[in-house]
């Protein structure tokens, strides 16, 4: 389980991260990221700054992934993957991890590899980001 301070729970925060943040897709998941410093420097968020000192993570596992047992298993695995990497995430940043249908049959190790690759692509952990060719993120 993620510590309460690291949970992204407000629907408005989910919308803000998915609409204003950068995204990196992998075969089993898509990670949306919004780093607090960039959000407020550009004035993208009209609300007053709410930058907690810790990274927050939220999960979206839709019915396309499978039945309720499968969705909860995927969400549980993703929570554990994210919890193990909280120390590498930028303070004040927010992530939304959206599971894709291929996540239903994935092991925790496979989800972890996809999560790490998405973070690297976003430039949030473990090396430089891989720029996306042909447009914005």
From TrEMBL:
Which molecular-function annotation in GO is an example for this chain?
ribonuclease P activity
Summarizing the function annotation, the protein's role is: RNaseP catalyzes the removal of the 5'-leader sequence from pre-tRNA to produce the mature 5'-terminus. It can also cleave other RNA substrates such as 4.5S RNA. The protein component plays an auxiliary but essential role in vivo by binding to the 5'-leader sequence and broadening the substrate specificity of the ribozyme.
Originating organism: Actinokineospora bangkokensis
Name listed for the protein in its UniProt record: Ribonuclease P protein component
Q: Which GO terms describe its cellular component?
A: ribonuclease P complex
Name the PANTHER family on file.
Answer: RIBONUCLEASE P PROTEIN COMPONENT
**Could you tell me which HAMAP family the record lists for this protein?**
RNase_P
User: What are the protein's UniProt keywords?
Assistant: Endonuclease, Hydrolase, Nuclease, RNA-binding, tRNA processing
Q: Which family does it belong to?
A: Belongs to the RnpA family.
């Amino acid at each position: 389980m993620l510590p309460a301070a690291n949970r992204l729970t407000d629907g408005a925060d989910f919308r803000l991260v998915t609409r204003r943040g950068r995204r990196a897709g992998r075969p089993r998941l898509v990670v949306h990221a919004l780093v607090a410093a960039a959000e407020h420097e550009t004035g993208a968020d009209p609300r007053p700054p709410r930058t907690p000192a810790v990274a927050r993570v939220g999960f979206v596992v839709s019915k396309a992934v499978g039945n309720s047992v499968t969705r909860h298993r995927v969400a549980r695995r993703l929570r554990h993957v994210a919890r193990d990497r909280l120390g590498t995430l930028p303070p004040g940043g927010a992530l939304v991890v959206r599971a894709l249908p291929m996540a239903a049959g994935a092991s925790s190790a496979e989800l972890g590899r996809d999560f790490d690759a998405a973070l690297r692509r976003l430039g949030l952990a473990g090396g430089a980001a891989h720029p996306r060719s042909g447009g914005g993120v």
